[in-house]
Amino acid sequence: MEKRKLGSKGLEVSAEGLGCMGMSEFYGAADEAEAEATIQRALELGVSLLDTADMYGPFTNEELVGRVIAGRRDEVVLATKFGNVRGPNGERLGVRGDPEYVREACEASLRRLGIDAIDLYYQHRVDPKVPIEETVGAMAELVEQGKVRHLGLSEAAPETIRRAHATHPIAALQTEYSLWSRDPEDEILPTLRELGIGFVPYSPLGRGFLTGRFRSLDDLDEDDFRRANPRFEGANFERNMELVKRVEEIAAEKDVTAGQLALAWVLAQGDDLVPIPGTKRRSYLEENVAATEIELSEEDLRRLDEAAPRGAAVGDRYADMSPVGL
What we know:
Elements lengths: L2 E4 L4 E4 L3 E2 L12 H13 L4 E3 L8 H10 L7 E6 L1 E3 L5 E4 L3 H15 L4 E6 L8 H13 L3 E7 L3 H10 L2 E7 L11 H8 L2 E5 L31 H21 L3 H10 L14 H9 L7 H10 L19
Parallel strand pairs: 3-4, 4-5, 5-8, 8-9, 9-10, 10-11
Antiparallel strand pairs: 1-2, 6-7
Helix pairs in contact: 1-2, 1-9, 3-4, 4-5, 5-6, 7-8, 7-10
């Protein structure tokens, strides 16, 4: 698979990564054996960037990833995150970015993952109570100690990104970006490109909506968090399905799936972008990886712009947007 650079400090990864969150939580019932097989298959296909976080599970997703990569560490660029604090029973305990917590969280992640150093360590959400310079300063100490190789941020605003980068070079920013979430084009992407920071779009398939696999909420498991997602609710679902149908029409002409076309669109937005579509099944992984081979013409891109212009999706990205984009 094609390689891409994230940031200016030598971090090189596969053009497409793998988001591992749904293997442990949020998207219905987990199948650990299939999840492990999916990660193994990703490595066979040349996917090197694996994305997890301490809060997924909680805590169990890092353990899952750690088990699979044991003995294959040199094939993997491992990204994990801290900051969304959860208790052992899954309770949500807010956001923390204080230096003491940064150190505690890193040690815990290293232990669960069974590794000596994290390749890319993200602050999952910005803590409004702690200056970003303090948080990133503590993260920089982890780099000096050899426990972390590169630093990242998730869902941070342009000014926060600038202040963080001035404290220590930031390799990558992670934010939702897809045909139905194009807000980063306004300020985030220009800021990243000015500073030489890579971009890691998560949910590049719109939490699966852009694949066209969901025709109603009945297609989702009872415990799937998307049931409470504003874009999946009521009239919003129907309006957003119109967007998907337009993408499906173009995909059919190119003899690819709607999901592959949506991924190819993200990949075409620049070689400083590395999307991390999540899946817990090998079949969907293989479909997603095949999207890296799709070439889009200027006409294809123009038609997709018309089919899914900025602001086309109806509904917020999350039910509570208050912690997002500080």
